[in-house]
């Protein structure tokens, strides 16, 4: 496996004419041959190198209701039910961010998921990658309080990997706009040690 992906808010299910094409693009023979794994509320295991550690990744495209986009759920009970099914995993891929973690919009609202934020201390993935709120692009490492279970990750790298330039950081000093892939919206690269 080289790449894992989840759907997102722009993956409109209402575009019936495109669904087959999109599914083939992310799940068809060419995608499989290229090592792409599409995850929709699914887990996948892989090794980064021969005889290396077995990594687990879980991906979910859902995020709290936001402007009637695709893969939305209602906050509260719907969110808690969905997130209760998330298993412990090394790498967690979600479309939306947890509440108050790279989730601040242009209008200064925190729109991340409260239920996801509440579930993360139990999951403690080594890496949590999400997007959705482009203007909140960034990364940080959070240390977790010590627990008796030594198998849990002691820290998690959180990455808002949305890299389409938006918001005040998308404007250059002196005028003009940052282009796709330019600082501060460059891709975030995370190295996880295979022997960890």
What is the number of beta strands?
10
CATH-scheme architecture: 4-Layer Sandwich
End-to-end CA span:
19 Å
The percent range for strand residues is 15-25%
- Main sheet properties: 6 strands, mixed
CATH superfamily: Metallo-dependent phosphatases
Gross geometry = globular
Strand order of the largest sheet: 3-4-7-8-10-9
Rg calculated over all Cα atoms: 17 Å
Q: What is the average per-residue confidence, as pLDDT, rounded to a whole number? A: 84
Uncertain stretches: none
SS content category? alpha/beta
- CATH class reads Alpha Beta
Instruction: Quickly count the helices.
Output: 4
Helix percentage range: 10-25%
- CATH level 3 topology: Purple Acid Phosphatase, chain A, domain 2
Report on the structure:
The chain has 196 residues and is an alpha/beta fold. It has one domain (3-170): Purple Acid Phosphatase, chain A, domain 2. It is 18% helix and 22% strand. The protein has 4 helices and 10 strands. The protein has helices spanning 16-27, 29-33, 77-84, 114-123, and strands at 3-5, 36-38, 42-47, 54-60, 63-64, 72-73, 91-94, 127-130, 138-143, 155-160. The strands form 3 sheets. It has a 6-stranded mixed β-sheet, with no helix packed on it. A two-stranded parallel sheet has the order 1-2. Strands 5-6 form a two-stranded parallel sheet. The longest helix has 12 residues, at 16-27. The two termini are 19 Å apart. The model has no long low-confidence stretch (mean pLDDT 84).
